[in-house]
Design goal:
single chain; about 230 residues; alpha+beta; 434 Repressor (Amino-terminal Domain); Endonuclease, Chain A; 2 domains; eight-stranded mixed β-sheet; two-stranded antiparallel ribbon
Length: about 230
Amino acid sequence: MSLVSHKQIKAARSMLEWTQDDLAKESGVSEGTVIKLERGEKISDEGLEKILQKFEHERIEFVGTKGVIHHTQNSPRTFDGVNAPNEFYDCILASAEEKGGEILAIYPTTEMMARSLGIVNFKNLERLDRLRRYASIKCLLTDVKDSSLAMPSVQFRAIPQALFGFWPTFVCGDKSAIILTRDGEHFAYMVVDSLDTALLEAKKFSLCWDSGIPLGTKEASHKVRS
């Protein structure tokens, strides 16, 4: 289930200045469950998952079997490794559920956008449909010619490569992200929880969106290649 140690649980609780009873109430488990966990005793997978989810909500990150990091406001969280796309998707989905509004993205191609959200089967875009239930999705593309994947739940516009930064970006609610990739298939994510930063990124996106060309027009292909 998890390689998080009982010492990390104690350290994380201490960082939040919570008692064992506080952690139990916040996580929806019994105080006895927390006591057993911090003694290194086995508890149910369901109880452990509730506790770890609460720590994640409080921006606690467990590193290996010894490290604990409490990410403060504006400090970036990093998702890396095999499960990073799923962790990033869950982060964005939670933000969309809580904040609604718009999801704003800039990518070279539709395929890269899908892969970065953990979509491995291009015939099943259920992940995008779930996001769309809570927020409208807009995406700026710089390579229309190589974007063959249709995404009915996303509004697309084309912009010139010159307006695109070095890495794909994502904004949702009070979260903004830079998506790092070398091959367009393996990703690492730097996510900042800051409303001010998200509003700034949204404003820059809006300026590009207003000058972008809707896909499906001759102007779109021309604009991207100009």
